[in-house]
Amino acid sequence: MFEKKKVMTSAGVEVRKKPLGLRIWTNRGYYVMFLPVAIFVLILNYWPMLGVRYSFYKATPITMNKGTNEFVGFANFTKLFETDAFWNAFQNTLELSIMKLLITTATAVIVSIFLNEMGNLLAKKTLQTIIYLPHFMSWAVVASVASLLLSPSVTGMVNGMLRDWGVLGEADKNIYFLADKEMWRPIFYIINIWKETGWGTIIFLATLSGINPEQYEAADIDGATRLQKMRYITMPALANTILTVLILNLAKVLNMFESVFVLYNDAVYDVSDVIGTYIYRQTFAVALPNYGYSTAVGLFRSLVGCLLFVICNWASKKVRGRGIV
Amino acid sequence: MKRKVLSVLLTSAMVMSMAACGSSETTEAPASNDAAASTTTDSAAADTKADAAASTDTAAADTETAFQLTEPIKAYVDGTVNYVKEDSGKEEFVSQLNAAISEKMGYDVTVEFTALDHSGYTDAVGRMFAGGDYPDVMIMNAGMFRQYMTTGLLWNMADAYDNAEFQSRLTAPGLNESLKDKDGALYGFTPAIGGGCPTYVKKAWLDAVGMKAEDIKTYDDFYKMLEAFTTGDPDGNGVNGDTYGFISAGLYGEEAPHINYLPDFWQDGYPGLLKGEDGVWYDGMQTEATKNALLRMQEAYQAGVIDPVSYTAGTKEAREKYWSADQTGSAGVFCYWAGSWYDNIATNLEKNGVETELVQLDPIAEVAAIGGYLNRESPVWVIIDDGDGDDAREQAIFDAFIEPMLDGDKCQTLWTYGAEGTHWSLKAESITTGTGEKEKTVEYAEGEFHCLPTIADPTTLFKKNHIDNAAVIAPLTNGYSNTTDTVAASNTHFVNNCVDAPQAPSCDTITNEGVAITDAIKAVISTVVVEGGDVDAAMQTYVDTVGSIVEQALSELNAQ
Fold first, then answer.
1. CB atoms B123 and A173 under 8 Å
2. Less crowded by CB within 10 Å, the N or C end of chain B?
């Protein structure tokens, strides 16, 4: 029924596979070297997964320690699906993540092309360094700086500039950028562009540096303009990389937390609350949290994440000819 | 194919192991119910035992001497214990405290403090509990305490408290009595009154706009003052309109009572569940008083009289803005804690070169009508019950840790002022504080109590460790005091103009759905005050969102 597939050398000689046990023994050195990694992965990645069982319990800090968690079946999930705040957070997560991904990828591509076109190497390197730097700043620092610059107080720099330029009249109130439902998302995207664009250019610049210069020389001989070269040589070369970056990042869209957590406040929950921050509030903003509910939210997020991952893997196979894993 | 079979087997193994863990939990549940039942029985037995012990002092004394603490006492504390923070003389404080407790107990006792971030204290404690990491004693704020007191985690210290040595020296015995539940159980102990936030005004600003503190008698007067500070030039920099009338650390505090940073605006409104005079709980949020309070804040916020950052500002940001060297963008009025904080604010204003006296306003008529500023429910010390059914260890922790806090002598001094030689001294010496024109040197004679310069900034003095000497419920017997006339006056003024804050509610629904209610309250405040929206529409949204949850909570509270 199952015909064993023969492995042949190029000379047509059949390669006979040794038994598994013998192969393991032969490569025991490698297996011993791999053992710490396997233990590490099991303990840190797989052992915590057992915690998903709490999503079927009412588990408070007290009951968890006493081992008196109450089995509630799917009650936590029922509550989850009936809660508007959760669905609001779910929707926000998708919208914010996808928009952020598209915007930061687009800006990274544009900046990469500009950098690639720069002739002065010193200026190019300096600019690259400057735009990489924000990536290494912690989100807490970025949020503090943003809060100061965007303060609605009379000392707020951006509001002061808007007033000086006449955008805000004498009768106008200062804009509370981070507490205004209409302004929060644009500000969030701008901060993300500033922080992550530089880092995002690395992979695109690597692709651009791999384009055969002969293509540009041939285009020059044919009398192509700079824009034409970008349109017909650079962009097609980048297309595959852009798709790859988008697909790889699409699988992670539900992981958003830190960037929102440091910038949001209760005035803008409607447009900013994401699953990560929703779980945080349910877990840590109360004196006696029900970890069962938080775990249920987390499990649901993981399941949707898995689904996205499968879709991305499929898309990756279609586009790149191979999957993510 | 082999790989596929292997992957299927591995996946099955993982699923089965997870299911096995789940099923073991299921089988544990009845056992744990038994455990819970036995805990109840045990605690009842313990109560009976304690009652018996209380009736025979000799027996109690025997129990006390029989148990010795061999392990260090683990204590979780928030930011209110100042000298266990970094660069605050922690080693000296802990070492002297250990020595004083050991001397009192007659054997070596050590205390291990874990100082958790004040603003994230509830989070951190929850995380540690979830990991099975429990202290022996810890601080809980009123809201947290009300949630935990019914869980069986906290030790009933009623008998230990009733038999404590400090009983004869208590000046406010009712404070801890009020913490007892209807069965007389006491799960938390507070050494001092909770305190509250009166309204502070910069006198120089009042002078600049031609007003007097004694004329601020009603909300209208108060609002006119705020308007004058906002539109005029109270800081004297030659620019009108670059200052604010009022700044606050949030419009709704996370900790009960949630409104004490804006008493003049909230007045008789209260965004939370309240117990009426008839003992019936009701939703303060859905009252006309709260609507009116929201409209007052809306008017002030929209008119720019309240600094807009007040909505998101924390206490640190609000304080620092109030006393900043550059008064542009600062505010004239700030509601903050009475007593030593009066001194702190005044000192910082002076240190930053802001020439003004700080005035503590009498409550305006509308605030006085409810009894005055709110005196919050005090944070409490609790002892974690190890659940072994034997109270000897918990009693020993009470004897070694809680009771000495009010011994009137060494331990209380440590909790009040810190360690001798580091935070305070009795030596003859001269102490210089301030810099430049503000530099001041004071000579102290031998035996004269005085606080020492801080480690972080030698131009300022240590003031208080944990217990406020002016608010403590059993005074020091050694006469040590650094309470300045201004601090004493601030405390006296507050005590004469305060009313106890509403009791924090506690029931299953609040525990499970508290976040939803809080989020809905904040949404109303945001919509009405920050966005200038319609108050009735916002209230309707509140009812639509959490109305049923609130009803459920009220029915549970009224059934208690």
1. no
2. N
